[in-house]
Design goal:
The chain is mostly helical. 79% of the residues lie in helices and 0% in strands. Helix 1 packs antiparallel against helix 2 (33-52).
Length: 84
Amino acid sequence: MWLLTAAALLALLKLLAQVGLVDVGGISALSWWWAVGAFALTAGWFAYADYSGLSSRKAMQEMERIKNQRLEKQRELLGTKRKR
C-alpha cells in the first residue's frame, strides 16, 4: 500500500510537471522548488525502502500469504483441511 501511494505521488508530480511545461492553468507561474523537493522526497523514500529491505520483506510476506491460500485451497479440494 505504501509503495502504491509513493508511486501515485510520483505520477501526480510527473503530471503536474508536464502541465507546468505547457502552461495550463497558470501552473508554470509557481516555483519549481516545490516539484524538485517533492521529487527528492519521493526518491528518498524509495531509496530508504530498498536500503532497509522494506520492499523485499513486504513482497516475501505477500508471496507467503498467496502460498498459504493456495495450499489451503488444495487441502479443501483433497478433503484434508486442517482443523484449527
